[in-house]
Structures are given as structure tokens and as C-alpha cells.
Amino acid sequence: MGRSSDDTLLKCDVAVIGAGTAGLVAERHARKAGAKTLLIDPEFRGTTCAAVGCMPSKLLIAAADAAHGITQASQLGIDATAQVDGPAVMKRVQRHRDRLVESTKAQIRKLPDGVCVKARAKFSGPNTLDLDNGQRVHARAVIIATGAAPTVPDAFSGLGDRLLTNENVFDLEELPTSLGVVGAGPVGLEIAQAMSRLGVDVTVVDHGNSIAALSDPAVANRLHDILSDEFPICLGVDAKTVPAEDKVKLSWQGDSSGEALVSHVFLAVGRPANLEDLNLAKANLKLDDHGTPVFDRKTMQCGDAPIFIAGDANHDRPLLHEAADEGAVAGHNAAKWPDVARSRRKTPLSIVFTRPTAASVGKVPFDAEADMLVGSTDFENQGRATIECRAHGGIRLYAEKGGSRLSGAEMCLPDAEHLAHLLCWAIESGMTVSQLLDSPFYHPTLEEGLKPALRDLCEALQESTPWDRADGHIPGC
């Protein structure tokens, strides 16, 4: 299949709309499965992760960690002063960001001739797409991988270049002098803390009453208390902005009220899926209350149509590793349609790179105490964390009543990304709480902080506690 005698009509087996992580993986897997593919995107700018997401934010956080380490060195008896060079910080962020983006673009350029079509697409039928370059695509199956973009409510319009989102914050030539962050989710908090540790005066406000997308109130409240020592976080408030000469007046009312005069506002109140311009009505798909196609998480298929959806476009698990997994499933199934295979979804894992790091693993109920058994450890006295002047936060482990296996965990603690991976793998492997507790724990490590929580769960599950569990506790671990 390929170009027809009519140059305005393109024919293929699988058309992929969107060249982000999900789209690139979907195209590759569809082609690997033997399909003739088209990858349609208006920009081919590289993935969200490389351009405006995961990687540039971690570059900023790395600089913030270095500055914070210097300011905290006095606790270890070391006299040092941090001098933050804002332009140099941003140049490094941009230099490495651009290198990562170019690496992604280089992979796109290696795709077979004729695969990439630079255009915007919209449905004219379940199997047909109209492109804004005048061409039309006919495909046996279509994959929607259009990603998501930050939303800008009317209350924050009119701020010009003083309004920042993840799309433009990494292009700043200099750090803001002060920053109002609207949104206490993962993106808002990562940027807020990084900017604060680089010397920016930061205030965070949010309409909700939890932070970092954490489900367990005990963990969310603990993280809120820790971060509030560095910058104010006002929850349960409605915020608005008014330009004020060369500044912006950010004000809020609700559970608390106040205002701050800031040089910039960083907006992180959500990233809705890029679906509005797809003309989904022509695709004859059932949509949910948010206007997102109803789909099967195991196949990525939308109803019984030859249409699949993957990545941030479906707003199910808006994380890079999930986008890649979904793209692989969607690509394979689109190529094999109507012979669609169901896949196993991996254990949920999400990480917020604040300090301390927050993470959720597996099944984390909104009301952990009511629905599941809980074991916990307070890291304020954990041995290795105390040695490193990072003794804060804690972890909560969950197991289903009547069971024996670890079901999930939520935490905010030093280097939680590593413990989160270990626990995720343990859940994937079906390990019981008893087996985890009987595993080796080196001393002194942060991993030892799991042991009190595991002991709690063993007791709650009424499992036996041999001497090495009950009496082998090392003080300070």
C-alpha cells in the first residue's frame, strides 16, 4: 500500500497521529508487525519529555540540588556560600535540553522515506483523515497519540511573557526574581522547589487540598509540612492575577487568603489531552465526560472501532514509561486489527522529584486506613538519613485484608525513587510481606527504613514473626 494515483490521497495500514513518545513507539511496533505506516505531526519537535518535560526539569533540579547542598553544608561543619549564576544555570539547562531534543529528531530522520507527514490531521471518518496540507489519508487503522498541553484558564490570560508553563519556562535567559506557582501537583512542586533553592522567592497556591498527586493524606500532609519550611503552600484556594506595572499581583481566597507581588507566574493546573481539533465526532467514537474516547486499557482500542489511543492523549497514566508501553500495544494491535491482543499492564509507578522525593507504587487507596492494612516508618530518626542530614518524611506500605502480599506503597523520603522501584518490582514478582522482611538489608542504608513498616504489616496480617524479625532490630534503622 502507498501513494495512490491521486497525489492528494495517501493509503496505509496504520496512521499514527502524533510523534511524541507514544506515537514514535506505536509507529515502530506497527511497522515491525508488517504494517505500512504513516506518522503525522505538525512539528516533529521531539518528545515532551526531552523538550519541555522530564529532562529539562531534572536539569534545573540538579542545579538546585547543588546550591542547596552548599547552603546546608554548615550542618556538617563546612563553611561555604552558594553563588547562583542564573544565566549560567539556564544556559546549561538549554544546552543539554537541545542535545536531547536533537537526539530524538535524529531518530525521526532515520525513519523510512515517506513515513513522516508534516501536517495536522482530523477525522473525516473512522478510517479517513483530512490533513491541513490538502491531502487525505485512508488507513485500515488509526492511532491517536496527540499528547497533552498545559491549560491556561481565563483568570491567567493577559500576562504576556510573565506567564510561564512547562512549554516556555526552560527558555528563560535568567531566573525569575520571584515566582507565583499555581498548582501543587508534580510539575508545579518540582519547579517551585528548584526555583526556591536557586534563590527565587516562591509562593505556591492550589485549589485542591492535597499535593504531588498523592492519595494517602498522611503522606501528602507530611510532604506539605516539609516543603512549607522552604516556601509557602496555600491549599484550598482560588487564585487570580492582575498585571501590576512590571510585576504581577497574584491573589487567592478560600481556606486562606493573601496576595504576592511576583515577577512571573508559573501555571501548572493540568495538561488536558490534545483532542479538540481531531473532529472526533466523525470517528463515531463513544466519549467520556471529558471528551476522551472510551478505550480498553488492555488493548488501547476505542470501542470496536479500528482506532487506538495511547499516551497522554488518553489521560489514563500520563507518564513516559506508560506512554511507551501503551504505544507498543497500540502499534501492534493496530497492525493486526481486527485480531486484537490483550496485554498485561505493569504495576503503577509514579515519582515526583521533590526533595524529599515522593512516590506512589501499586494499589494506593484514597482512604488507606479503611480499605487496607498499613505499615509505616517515620524517617525522622532513620539512621542513614540522619547521618546525611536528610532525616525527614516517611513511608506507608499497604496490604489487602485477608491477603499476604504487598499491594502498594506511598512515600516521601530521601531518594524515594530507588525504594519505589524496589517495591514495584517486589509487587510485580508477587512477593509477600514476610518474604520482603526476610530479604537482606545492608547496614547502614535507607532501605533499612522499610523494616519497621514491614514489621507493622506482618503484625497486622497476623503472620509469624521469627526472632530475626521481632528481635533483630538495629536501633536507628
UniProtKB/TrEMBL annotation:
Coiled coil regions in record: none
GO MF, one annotated term: dihydrolipoyl dehydrogenase (NADH) activity
Signal sequence annotation: none
Keyword annotations of the record: FAD, Flavoprotein, Oxidoreductase
FHA domain: residues covered: 1-30
One Pfam family per UniProt: Pyr_redox_2
Keyword Transmembrane included in the entry's annotation: no
SUPFAM superfamilies per the UniProt record, alphabetical: FAD/NAD(P)-binding domain (SSF51905), FAD/NAD-linked reductases, dimerisation (C-terminal) domain (SSF55424)
EC numbers, comma separated: 1.8.1.4
The keyword Flavoprotein is annotated on this UniProt entry: yes
Family designation: Belongs to the class-I pyridine nucleotide-disulfide oxidoreductase family.
Protein's recorded name: Dihydrolipoyl dehydrogenase
Taxonomic lineage of the native organism: Bacteria, Pseudomonadati, Pseudomonadota, Alphaproteobacteria, Rhodobacterales
